């Protein structure tokens, strides 16, 4: 709801999903309150209450047979950097940064031109916008983390766009970071194409030269997957009536992937792009009795009934590729219009980066929601493949997929993701947890309750999760699995819709602006188990209103807020990236945290240090190292997005990253240690 400033508690332009969980399921906070009791929490104070939760991890009720964490701890040896509000990248003493592949960098290794001078087609052959989840695939590699540390395919998501930085006509307009005004009531076609083409995924070969600097190499595998690239649908929803469109009357194909936030890497060395805040790219103008009348598979995901995010559906030429973003009923049946087009989004998309002619595949068995990303448990021969994923919207859920067929390294491929059981997490008040099956015919997921088959369960994953009683969480973002003990970590970035009545130990702040990191251990250390034990690893926030598990303490060296990106390196360092929203950065309660940052933590001792701070207006997101851990890639997304409309009209931007001139651009940082050592030591 708008506050007294007329602002909504989410920011569509800044990438937030529209909150749409109207179910009566208890929130995580309500469950935590039941566990400790509200009076006990208030009397015992924050520290006691949180210790109670973290203590659950040391004696997990459900984790039988858990192995002790390795005794050799990862070295976190760098000198922490201070909080910063400066328009620059800061790394610890003894480290260096190179910036590569800003938006608009041609994939053929040529110099390119200014972003505003590029055509839509040229953008489609160049690095996209808003770099996000990312993986480095060693060039000769057969496994995700083995092979060359000087030559590989960097694969990265492009989450969304900032139109005013992309189009020449935006210069001098009083516009914020969202959509541009129409021209004669329409979107110019090439603007719409350029924005579609700035979305999706880049596959780009990069190598390290003799001088230690990295550069793009023109390679036949270099490729852009965009918001318009043809894709196949696989899994239980393939061919279902709910996917039929004018483009694909049999419901087996679609065009493009949108709002790809975090990513995943399969045990068979392919890339997964998650479709996060896709709902706002569509609109449905259907009405009944003068009110919006959206089907449940759109309403539960917040498809707008007014305008789309970038007005692509209003492209001047009326081309089908743009009209499809209008999901209104305009034809005689679903094969004559795009009423079902939103059902082709919200999935996990598999891309084989080593095969430039391969068609990306949407893997529907993993469910449909605002997929932040996906992370796999360790692949074990003869055991199911297990993947965890979060739904990043306020009060949404955490899921896991367990394959029906066992992993066999010699034959494993994406079809393993087409058959299996999808579960959603329920966090019990006693520190135990349950994975509730989202399987047609089990529990309430029956035809009598509106789920005719498994495809309907999957298209309506959120409604199915509501029905089984999943736990509402504080915006689940990235997940990561500790390579040492198999514990699963998830960031819960914030939840400003939490009320005073819901304050408790696990979510101890109303209007939770700071977020936390939850973790769990599967029963018997079996990732396919249906029970687990959970605790909180980090309660982020200011000194005195934050806490970390283990013997760690929160100080000026590691205060942080709004954890989002999360990744374990092979030594067991947990890298934590932050996404304080544009409206909150360097102001109010978020002022002490400065610009968005990245930290490294030891998950057992709780030692945590700030490793990097980014330029103004951006978020730090996406992190991976080369297999030798001596080169790290980190993305800077949406620098300068805090630029006000008035400043933009006056020719000023809040950031000049990365070049110091021109419009700010998302780009990738290459971080090395000057002595050639392992990053983080
Ligand atoms: Fe795209 Fe949930 O961050
Ligand atoms: Ca994110
Ligand atoms: Ca985020």
Summary tags:
681 residues; ten-stranded antiparallel beta sheet; single chain; six-stranded mixed beta sheet; 9 helices; binds calcium ion; alpha+beta; binds MU-OXO-diiron; globular
> N-to-C terminal Cα separation, in Å?
46 Å
The major sheet is characterized as: 10 strands, antiparallel
Model regions low in confidence, pLDDT < 50 over at least 5 residues: 1-15, 28-69
Helix proportion range: 10-25%
What small molecules does the structure contain? MU-OXO-diiron, calcium ion
Number-wise, the strands total 33
Beta-strand fraction estimate: 25-35%
DSSP summary: helix tally: 9
**Can you tell me the number of structural domains?**
1
Overall average pLDDT = 91
User: Pairing-aware structural class of the strands and helices?
Assistant: alpha+beta
Rg over CA atoms, rounded to whole Å, is 23 Å
The geometry reads as globular
Characterization of the model:
By secondary structure, the protein is an alpha+beta fold. The protein has 9 helices and 33 strands. Strands 15, 16, 18, 19, 20, 22, 23, 24, 25 and 26 form a 10-stranded antiparallel beta sheet that branches. Strands 8-7-14-13-10-9 form a 6-stranded mixed beta sheet, with no helix packed on it. Strand 27 and strand 28 (574-578) form a beta hairpin. The longest helix has 21 residues, at 38-58. It binds MU-OXO-diiron and calcium ion (2 copies).
Topology summary:
Layout (H helix, E strand, L loop, with lengths): L27 H9 L1 H21 L36 E6 L19 H4 L7 E8 L12 E8 L30 H10 L1 E9 L5 E3 L6 E3 L4 E5 L18 E3 L4 E6 L5 E5 L11 E2 L2 E2 L3 H4 L20 H4 L24 E4 L9 E3 L11 E2 L7 E7 L3 E3 L1 E9 L13 E8 L4 E6 L16 H6 L1 H8 L4 E2 L1 E6 L6 E5 L23 E7 L8 E9 L7 E2 L14 E6 L5 E5 L18 E5 L6 E6 L5 E7 L5 E7 L7 H5 L17 E7 L8
Parallel strand pairs: 7-14
Antiparallel strand pairs: 1-33, 2-3, 3-4, 4-5, 4-6, 7-8, 9-10, 10-13, 11-12, 13-14, 15-16, 16-18, 17-21, 18-19, 19-20, 20-25, 22-23, 23-24, 24-25, 25-26, 27-28, 28-29, 29-30, 31-32, 32-33
The structure holds MU-OXO-diiron and calcium ion (2 copies).
The site of one calcium ion has 4 residues, from loops.
């Amino acid at each position: 709801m708008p506050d007294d400033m007329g602002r909504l508690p989410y920011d569509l332009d800044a990438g937030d999903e529209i909150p749409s969980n109207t179910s009566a399921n208890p929130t995580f906070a309500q469950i935590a309150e039941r566990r400790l009791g509200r009076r006990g929490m208030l009397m015992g104070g924050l520290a006691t209450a949180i210790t109670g939760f973290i203590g659950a991890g040391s004696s997990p009720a459900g984790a039988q047979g858990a192995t002790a964490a390795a005794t050799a701890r990862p070295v976190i040896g760098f000198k922490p950097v201070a909080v910063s509000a400066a328009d620059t990248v800061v790394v610890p003493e003894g480290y260096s940064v190179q910036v590569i592949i800003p938006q608009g960098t041609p994939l053929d290794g040529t110099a390119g031109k200014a972003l505003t001078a590029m055509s839509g087609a040229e953008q489609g052959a160049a690095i996209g916008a808003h770099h996000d989840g990312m993986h480095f695939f060693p060039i000769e590699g057969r496994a995700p983390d083995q092979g060359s540390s000087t030559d590989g395919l960097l694969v990265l998501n492009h989450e969304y766009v900032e139109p005013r930085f992309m189009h020449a006509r935006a210069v001098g307009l009083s516009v914020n970071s969202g959509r541009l005004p129409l021209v004669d009531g329409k979107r110019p076609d090439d603007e719409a194409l350029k924005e579609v083409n700035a979305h999706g995924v880049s596959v780009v070969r990069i190598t390290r030269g003799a001088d230690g600097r990295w550069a793009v190499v023109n390679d036949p595998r270099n490729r852009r997957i965009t918001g318009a690239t043809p894709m196949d649908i696989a899994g239980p929803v393939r061919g279902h009536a709910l996917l039929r469109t004018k483009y694909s009357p049999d419901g087996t194909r679609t065009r493009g992937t949108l709002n790809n936030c975090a990513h995943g890497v399969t045990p068979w060395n392919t890339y997964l792009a998650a479709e996060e805040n896709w709902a706002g790219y569509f609109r449905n103008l259907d009405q009944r009795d003068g009110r919006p009348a959206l089907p449940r598979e759109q309403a539960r995901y917040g498809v707008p009934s007014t305008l789309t995010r970038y007005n692509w559906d209003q492209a001047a030429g009326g081309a089908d590729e743009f009209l499809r973003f209008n999901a209104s009923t305009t034809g005689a049946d679903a094969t004559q219009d795009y009423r079902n087009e939103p059902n082709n989004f919200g999935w996990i998309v598999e891309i084989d980066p080593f095969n430039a002619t391969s068609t990306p595949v949407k893997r529907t068995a993993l469910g449909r929601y605002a997929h932040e990303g996906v992370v796999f448990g360790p692949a074990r021969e003869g055991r199911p493949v297990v993947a965890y994923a979060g739904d990043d919207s306020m009060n949404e859920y955490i899921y896991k997929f367990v394959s029906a067929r066992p992993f066999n390294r010699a034959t494993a491929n994406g079809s393993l993701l087409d058959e299996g059981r999808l579960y959603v997490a329920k966090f019990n008040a006693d520190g135990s947890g349950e994975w509730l099956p989202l399987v047609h015919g089990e529990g309430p997921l029956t035809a009598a309750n509106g789920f005719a088959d498994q495809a309907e369960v999957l298209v309506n994953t959120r409604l199915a999760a509501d029905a089984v009683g999943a736990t509402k969480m504080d915006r689940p973002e990235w997940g990561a699995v500790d390579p040492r003990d198999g514990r699963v970590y998830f960031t819960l970035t914030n939840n400003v819709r939490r009320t005073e009545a819901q304050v408790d130990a696990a979510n101890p702040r109303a209007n939770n602006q700071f977020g936390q990191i939850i973790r769990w251990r599967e029963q018997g250390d079996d990732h396919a188990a249906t029970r687990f034990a959970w605790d909180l690893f980090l309660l982020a926030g200011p000194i005195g209103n934050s806490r970390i598990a283990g013997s760690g303490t929160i100080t000026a060296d590691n205060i942080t807020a709004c954890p989002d990106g999360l990744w374990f390196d092979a030594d067991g360092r947990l890298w934590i990236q932050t996404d304080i929203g544009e409206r909150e950065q360097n102001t109010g309660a978020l002022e002490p945290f400065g610009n968005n940052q990245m930290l490294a933590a030891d998950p057992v001792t709780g030692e945590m240090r700030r490793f990097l701070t980014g330029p103004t207006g951006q978020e730090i997101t996406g992190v991976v190292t080369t297999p030798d851990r001596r080169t790290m890639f980190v993305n800077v997304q949406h620098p300068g997005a805090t630029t006000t409309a008035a400043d933009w009209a006056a020719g000023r931007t809040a950031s000049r990253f990365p070049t110091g001139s021109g419009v700010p651009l998302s780009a990738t940082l290459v971080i090395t240690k000057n002595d050639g050592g392992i990053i983080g030591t």
